[in-house]
């Protein structure tokens, strides 16, 4: 397997990443690809064409999860999966998710060029809507695949414009029954996801590869504050039930609760704050917050949620507003598979790449893939730890090392 | 003039108010009519037709201020003006502004039916964009008419989509030079605006009419907080420069500063809070706030602004964000004309209506009309003091009393 390195076509892969990045709702280099939006559909078409060109058999499920199969000599065996997502939050960059999809494809092409013949099939997966932008819930495709979101609950999902998942997936051309998306335990013989770290550790330490042992447990809460609107000039301060000043207290209470654990692994964010009616001379009558709370320790994370709930009760009684709190999800952390981690470690050693074990603080499809298959992730560095921004960057060398280790590991697992 | 009462066609006026309310960007009864939007243009056409039907000569200026003239027997004299606005903030109701426009028209029609012949012309004015929704600055039409906003500064105004005032007014069909909008002092012989109180005093005290002696001094500040974005899971709390938690502190600091004056007349509101990029799993990198600060005491209001500025400096240094503060406007308070107030008082007495003198805490076109003519306002009650909401309400009796006093006053001033 020592020839994997030289055969890698990193220039071609970088060009493909850039082409994919140009498919955006925003002006490139800003990447915005919300699931089932026009840019998402064009990006899917581009990636499917690349898979077909590589001789893979492409299929899709009812939610748009996309599969590109390289059949092994023993097709009865569960395939080895690899992949990630190509949807992107508003104002994102080129690499989050896409490195795992196009890098996975490049790993497969490299193995093919080397004349490698897999015993188990190798299957590239492009998961639908890893990002929660449209429906407020992350990892929609992998979550449904792992049956961690029932079709019944999925049917209740709506975007901000009130359109249902069923309406939007039908519009995007995905029409089968949602019941068909869930897959049984053992659907994959193993699953390996390549991803940028989205944190600064690898770059800072000059390490090539991160072997992810645990994926942090994220929770997402949607908070609606209902107050009383009115004219900003004529409504005196004592009588006000301003939904935005109440929401401001909650935003700060959440931040304080995350800091108060004293643990570096606790993070909490309010990323969405929609104000209604949203006019300079009108007291806000309703504010909708979306919050994200994570920790590698599930119990500690839940104590932050409890603090936020206590703040809601306090603000409600002091300000006379009504606060409703919906827990969109609160997923348990995932532990990666020891055998796959060992295979990744062996591959890194054989390729002469440095590596370290680490925890993923970001959310990944592997969190759910790990429920139906032994799974693990490998991280490559990203500059400054920056992600979810247009200046997100991973060098061709970093990407090349990641694809090389991934290819070696897939070959090992599929042999 | 005792016959003014019985001649009033209040049913017809209420029907016209409802018809106008149905011209909305939102689903009626919710009224949203942003200036130069499609609904605003339809509403203008409706009101102009009513004016033409009443035999008035309709004209428009370059910014869309609309004039409907009933020529007097001595057309060389400066006309007596009345009027208000028909644009409406998002999620508004039927009466704010519209009562002054359609009620002013009804007052003119009533005088015509009575066979009254004015010596001075009487002119109904529909001011463009009293509401700051689109351009972030209130009373755009009356402000430019009073030369309180130069054409040069007006040309720099943009809406949220970046479209300039010139683009939008051209699209709406108003194409003259902005330099032609300003009017000289003395353009009107007097100006009287009928409006709902937008506060609870008149209804609570059971008084028919409010005679407005002063209009409070509003100021509007736009605050932009620039922090650092990043992934909500991977960016640890200590390294963050979250623009939204910084903005939350400013929202609360402004509220506290307004309360700290101890004066019931000080009010402050953050009505707009736009978050970028606005995804649940992304740390906000930029937040844009729009704030509104008012007082009948200009110096006390400016002390609240100073407190807000101090909070910006404090938050900037503690949180490592960059805060820019733009004072959109800070207008001086207006004092209403004693002679017109006396005419209003005489009219109220003659009609047997109860009245009280009061201060206007809300912003009105009369604030600027008072710069080019002796001016005053009369208020009618609105239920519960509610305004800028779909449930804003003024009874036919309240409106009838207001129109009756307005008609008597116009007749007196034009004689």
Explained architecture:
2 copies of one chain form a homodimer. The first copy, chain A, starts with a helix and ends with a helix. Mean pLDDT of chain A is 94; it is low at 1-6. In chain A, strands 2, 3, 4, 6, 7, 8, 13, 14 and 15 form a 9-stranded mixed sheet that branches. Chain A has 415 residues and is an alpha/beta fold. The first copy, chain A, has 2 domains: 11-216 and 333-414, Zn peptidases (Aminopeptidase); 218-330, 2-Layer Sandwich (Alpha-Beta Plaits). Chain A has 13 helices and 15 strands. The longest helix of chain A has 22 residues, at 298-319. In chain A, helix 2 (10-21) runs antiparallel to helix 4 and helix 11 (338-351) packs across helix 13. At the A-B interface, strand 5, helix 9, strand 10 and strand 11 of A face strand 5, strand 10, helix 9, strand 11 and strand 12 of B.
What is the secondary structure topology, with strand pairs?
The structure is a homodimer of 415-residue chains.
Chain A: H1 4-7, H2 10-21, E1 31-33, H3 38-53, E2 57-60, E3 66-70, E4 80-85, E5 88-92, H4 98-113, E6 122-127, H5 140-145, H6 151-155, H7 165-171, E7 190-196, H8 201-205, E8 209-215, E9 217-226, H9 243-260, E10 267-276, E11 286-295, H10 298-319, E12 322-330, E13 334-335, H11 338-351, E14 355-360, H12 366-372, E15 375-380, H13 396-414
Parallel strand pairs in A: 4-6, 4-7, 7-15, 8-14
Antiparallel strand pairs in A: 1-5, 2-3, 3-6, 8-13, 8-15, 9-11, 9-12, 10-11
Helix pairs in contact in A: 2-4, 4-13, 9-10, 11-13
């Amino acid at each position: 397997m020592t020839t994997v390195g030289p055969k890698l076509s990193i220039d071609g892969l970088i060009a493909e990443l850039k082409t994919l990045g140009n498919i955006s709702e925003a002006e490139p280099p800003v990447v915005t690809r919300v699931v089932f939006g026009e840019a998402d559909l064009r990006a899917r078409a581009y990636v499917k064409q690349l898979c077909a060109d590589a001789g893979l058999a492409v299929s899709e499920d009812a939610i748009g999860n996309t599969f590109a199969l390289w059949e092994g000599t023993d097709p009865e065996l569960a395939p080895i999966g690899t992949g990630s997502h190509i949807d992107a939050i508003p104002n994102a960059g080129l690499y989050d998710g896409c490195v795992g999809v196009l890098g996975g494809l490049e790993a497969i092409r490299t193995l093919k060029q080397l004349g490698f013949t897999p015993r188990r099939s190798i299957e590239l997966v492009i998961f639908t809507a890893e990002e929660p932008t449209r429906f407020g819930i992350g990892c929609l495709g992998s979550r449904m695949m792992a049956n961690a979101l029932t079709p019944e609950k999925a049917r209740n999902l709506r975007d901000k414009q009130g359109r249902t998942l069923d309406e939007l997936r039908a519009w995007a051309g995905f029409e089968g029954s949602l019941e068909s998306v869930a897959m049984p335990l053992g659907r994959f013989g193993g699953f390996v996801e390549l991803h940028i770290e989205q944190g600064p550790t690898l770059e800072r330490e000059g390490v090539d590869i991160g072997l992810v042992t645990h994926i942090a447990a994220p929770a997402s809460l949607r908070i609606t504050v209902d107050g009383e609107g009115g004219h900003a000039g004529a409504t005196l301060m004592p009588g006000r039930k301003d939904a935005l000043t109440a929401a401001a207290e909650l935003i700060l209470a959440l931040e304080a609760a995350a800091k108060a654990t004293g643990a570096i692994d606790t993070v909490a964010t309010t990323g969405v704050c929609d104000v209604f009616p949203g006019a300079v001379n009108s007291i806000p009558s309703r504010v909708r917050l979306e919050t994200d709370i994570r920790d590698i320790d599930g119990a500690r994370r839940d104590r932050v949620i409890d603090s936020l709930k206590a703040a809601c009760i306090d603000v409600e009684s002091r300000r006379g507003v009504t606060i409703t709190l919906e827990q969109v999800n609160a997923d348990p952390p995932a532990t990666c598979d020891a055998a796959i981690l060992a295979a990744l470690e062996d591959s890194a050693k054989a390729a002469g790449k440095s590596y370290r074990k680490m925890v993923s603080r970001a959310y990944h499809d592997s969190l759910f893939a790990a429920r139906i298959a032994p799974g693990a992730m490998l991280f490559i560095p990203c500059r400054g730890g920056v992600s979810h921004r247009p200046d997100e960057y991973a060098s061709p060398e970093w990407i090349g090392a990641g694809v090389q280790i991934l290819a070696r590991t897939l070959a090992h697992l599929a042999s």
